[in-house]
Amino acid sequence: TGLLPQAQSESQTAVERPASGGADGNATPRAKAAAAKAAAGKTAPPAMAAARCGDCGVVDSIRAVEVPGQSTAVGAVAGGVVGGLLGNQVGGGRGRTAMTVVGAGAGAYAGNEIEKNINKSVSYEIRVRMEDNTYRTIRAAQPVFDVGQHVKVRNGQLVSAG
Question: Is 125 exposed, middle or buried (0-12, 13-18, 19+ CB in 10 A)?
Fold first, then answer.
């Protein structure tokens, strides 16, 4: 196949054999040049193609993504109670009852949104340009690598290429 240095298409004896130019056994200058050229071609092993790493790439970009928090009933209930108490302070008679209901609804909504805002988190989308010029996006809690750094993608996570 030509990949191993010993496995060559011509035998070594053809290179080592001197070319005879005449009856006295001396080679002609043209024959000497051809033998030197053939010998030079045999000393250099065939160039092997560089092996590609299917999991290797370079960090192309890092983007922070805000993930909204999950809400539990605690924020809504607490907000509803506070809103109901504040609504009960406004108006009188039936107006007071209406304001208590409106205050409780508004307080529940506000409490729910506040709880989501408190529980939000940030994750990072790391875009990697692979050696085959495709892109992979990896999500991580913290960016460990910088843009331009060589990495490998293993089991959906980035590891150092070195």
Answer: middle
Contact present, 108 and 77 (Cβ < 8 Å): yes
Measured distance CA(127)–CA(58) in Å, rounded: 9
Closest Cα to residue 56, out of 144, 124, 143, 136?
136
Q: What confidence tens digit (pLDDT) does each residue in 124-149 have?
A: 999 999 888 899 898 988 888 889 88
- What the block records as the tokens of 84 is 């109901």
- In the chain, DSSP finds a helix count (H) and a strand count (E) of 4, 5
AA letter at 135:
Y
Helix (H) or strand (E) holding 29: helix 29-43
The secondary structure element, H or E, covering residue 63 is strand 56-67
- For residue 16, what are the contacts with CB-CB under 8 A and spacing of at least 6? none
Whole-number Å distance between alpha carbons of 114 and 108: 10
Q: Which of 160, 147, 159, 156 is nearest to 62 (CA)?
A: 147
> Quick check: helix, strand or coil at residue 28?
coil
H-run or E-run covering 121: strand 121-130
Q: What is the pLDDT of residues 39-75, one digit of tens each?
A: 555 544 444 445 577 788 999 999 998 887 777 777 7
